[in-house]
Specification:
Elements lengths: L3 E4 L1 H17 L2 H17 L8 E2 L10 E5 L2 E8 L2 E9 L10
Parallel strand pairs: 1-5
Antiparallel strand pairs: 2-3, 3-4, 4-5
Length: 100
Amino acid sequence: MAYKLFWLRRASNELDEIYQFYSELANVQVAKRRIGKILEAVNHLQTVPYLGRKDDEFEHVRAYRYLIVLTYKVYYFIEDDGVYIASIWDCRQGGRAFYE
């Protein structure tokens, strides 16, 4: 069974920010490669939605899972036949509550 992917606004905005940052810092090719790796990992969740690890830190809010892609944690949750991409967090920035 293939799950449907849904990008929450926050995650979509964060993906755009990553693209903009690397476009300016390096160049468009670098930005596209980084985004491509994130999208490739996220698209894999359509067939293997439980691939990511459970995140116990936010368990009181929702059953979040995450994938590590490059230096990012891609947070998501599964609901019915959908995988919802909630946030993309650069691990180099330290901890935070992404759901706020």
